[in-house]
């Protein structure tokens, strides 16, 4: 595992602990208090809203992760460049040192002055040209040293500036992680405020929804099997098959497979199976896709939510449904694109170019 990935996994550890706590709250045994369906619906919506806010923070984390990767790649290139320039500087500086040492050993008097003081005019004429060449060589060596020093200093300054940017991005990531953690803890607190029977009822609703999602995935897989489907891009079909194979898997912030995903991580991994590279950031996926209407949607198209921020994305599978890494509580599941909760936040459909 690369250092970047290790930092990412350490960064989301606290969030994952809260996510697991949500599941444990829903799994408590039954109690004597009857559950109010209206209250449960309101609580579920409240929890989903909080999880959506956590996901927004996660997507900002993902976006920053991509920027950090780019900056660190640039720093690595600059570091290699600085090493080469340091070697070049050492070489030309060594040549200047050798000239200085030769001058010192020669008695400390400039060679041109020695020739000017020579008694034999023929000696002056024969050596003057050579002295001129030596002087030019000395000047050139000094200039090369100055140029090498300047180039190295410029590279080091650029590297320091990039390091400052990288640290700023790391700080952003830490802030996004804290925000995601806070929102998930708030969701946990909402669930903790329920009566035991209410939590049991919510768990039953979640289990029923998961069972329905698995059945829908099984049906969709049959419909979009390995056979070519009229009107559906073969690459899109391959991406959909991959995403459907992950239904039931867990949602974990900043993950992109092979067994755990966040929303943009699932769509990125699915399209990667089809040979298409997408960024691990829902807004960037939105920016890179061609916008179409829901009535034009085909399997493999991306479904976006939450307006201008676009911090949730799923994959259309046909029949008004999508497969997506929904949230920490539900994981990868199949949902209606315009379901009761999702309809409010629907942004649009994007076709992968």
Automatic annotation (TrEMBL):
InterPro entries: NLP_P60_dom, Papain-like_cys_pep_sf, Peptidase_C40. GO terms for biological process: proteolysis. SUPFAM superfamilies: Cysteine proteinases. One of its GO terms (molecular function) is cysteine-type peptidase activity. Residues 40-74 form a coiled coil. Residues 233-353 form the NlpC/P60 domain. Belongs to the peptidase C40 family. PANTHER family: MUREIN DD-ENDOPEPTIDASE MEPH-RELATED. This is Unannotated protein. It comes from freshwater metagenome. The lineage of its organism: unclassified sequences, metagenomes, ecological metagenomes.
């Amino acid at each position: 595992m690369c250092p970047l990935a290790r930092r990412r996994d350490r960064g989301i550890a606290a969030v994952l602990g809260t996510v697991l706590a949500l599941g444990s709250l829903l799994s408590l045994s039954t109690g004597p208090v009857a559950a109010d369906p209206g209250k449960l619906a309101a609580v579920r919506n409240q929890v989903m809203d909080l999880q959506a806010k956590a996901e927004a923070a996660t997507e900002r984390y993902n976006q920053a992760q991509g920027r950090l990767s780019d900056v660190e790649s640039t720093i690595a290139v600059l570091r290699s460049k600085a090493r080469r320039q340091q070697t070049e500087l050492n070489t030309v500086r060594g040549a200047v040192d050798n000239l200085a040492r030769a001058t010192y050993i020669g008695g400390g008097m400039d060679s041109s002055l020695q020739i000017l003081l020579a008694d034999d005019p023929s000696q002056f004429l024969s050596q003057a040209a050579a002295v001129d060449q030596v002087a030019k060589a000395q000047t050139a060596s000094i200039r090369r040293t100055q140029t090498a020093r300047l180039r190295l200093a410029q590279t080091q300054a650029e590297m320091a500036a990039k390091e400052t940017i990288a640290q700023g991005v790391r700080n952003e990531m830490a802030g996004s992680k804290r925000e995601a953690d806070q929102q998930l803890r708030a969701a946990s607190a909402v669930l903790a405020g329920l009566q035991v029977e209410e939590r049991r009822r919510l768990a039953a609703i979640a289990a029923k929804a998961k069972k329905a999602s698995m059945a829908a995935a099984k049906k969709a897989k049959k419909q979009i099997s390995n056979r070519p489907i009229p009107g559906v891009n073969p690459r899109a079909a391959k991406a959909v098959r991959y995403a459907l194979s992950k239904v039931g898997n867990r949602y974990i912030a900043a993950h992109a497979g092979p067994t755990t995903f966040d929303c943009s991580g699932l769509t990125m991994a699915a399209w990667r199976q089809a040979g298409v590279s997408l960024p691990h950031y829902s807004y960037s996926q939105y920016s890179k896709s061609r916008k179409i209407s829901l009535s034009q949607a085909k399997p493999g198209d991306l479904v976006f939510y939450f307006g201008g921020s676009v911090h949730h994305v799923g994959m259309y599978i046909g029949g008004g449904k999508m497969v997506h890494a929904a949230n920490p509580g539900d994981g990868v599941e199949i949902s209606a694109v315009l379901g009761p909760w999702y309809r409010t936040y629907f942004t649009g459909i994007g076709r992968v170019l």
